[in-house]
What does this fold into?
Amino acid sequence: MKSLIASAIVFTFIVSGLLAQDISGTWQGTLDTGVAKVRLALRIHNTSNGLSGTLLNIDQTPDWGAGTPLESISISDRTLRIKISPDITFQGTLNADMKSVDGSWIQGRTVPLKFEHAKPETEWQDTSSHNTRFVTVNGNVQLEVLDWGGAGRPVVLLAGLGNTAHIFDALAPKLSGAFHVYGITRRGFGASGSPASGYGADRLGDDVLEVIDTLRLSKPILVGHSIAGQELSSIGSRHPDRVAGLVYLDAAYSYAYYDAAVGDGDTPVPADVATMSPIDRAILEGRQKYSRIQCPVLAIYALAEGNRAAGEAQANAFEKGVPSARVIRLPMARHFFFLTNETLALNQINSFIARIP
It folds into this structure.
């Protein structure tokens, strides 16, 4: 599936209780690759099972809430070892004051890297112009909701698998000139709650509806990327009266619209499923076969990646099966085209919404 973007992976430190307290927080370091300087942030938290955290690549992704999956991490005698992937590791020594780690990033070659324990005033910040709040859904699950402000009809942005609403940090402010723009981080990702259950497509769609109710939004436009297409289709099939329109950003694949003649061409092979996080797997296992979407729709297919023939077949099926849809095929565009070709994405979204009464 195109949307398989790795989600943040929780990892455990083997440490004493005192040391665990000392190294919790945010650790920051700048990796000098010789070509560019890349900021890395290690966020460590206390949990009931010990310490957990995520590694964020600040400069190579706009999504502050999505972490790099780590295979393992351990600490012994102040030596910190992190295995990020089979080919990437970090090893360093905690200084006596427990405020920095001097070590090496090993990725084909060895590059010096120092992590420092950040203070609130020195921690790198998300500079996108949004306010953040948390909305409780499903009784006790808190979802991160970003509000970029703006006047006009409400637009709600939904991210793909593994990403958070922060993936729209660059795009959203450019929409806020004409609309009031919000973003929702789905359960299980980023700062939102991660319950043990509730990852079926309709439950995730209900989460979006509960946020809409809490914010008192009247018939918003929902804009979803990748796997968010299933939340769009869940709402567009069951509660089309609740929204004014749906925009699928390379998101209208079989999890959003099912045609038996096309099938599940974008379903991961078993080996891919085995390597997923439990939450990613639960979302895929909770897919539905939607076939009756009943509101105005814009579906954009980015066909430069993956099986173009399968993408074309799905686009044709969607266009035929959803008469209300305007289907656009972008043969040279990639899955994250709203980041790499922002102007195109903005023009298509604005044009579509302008046609909705």
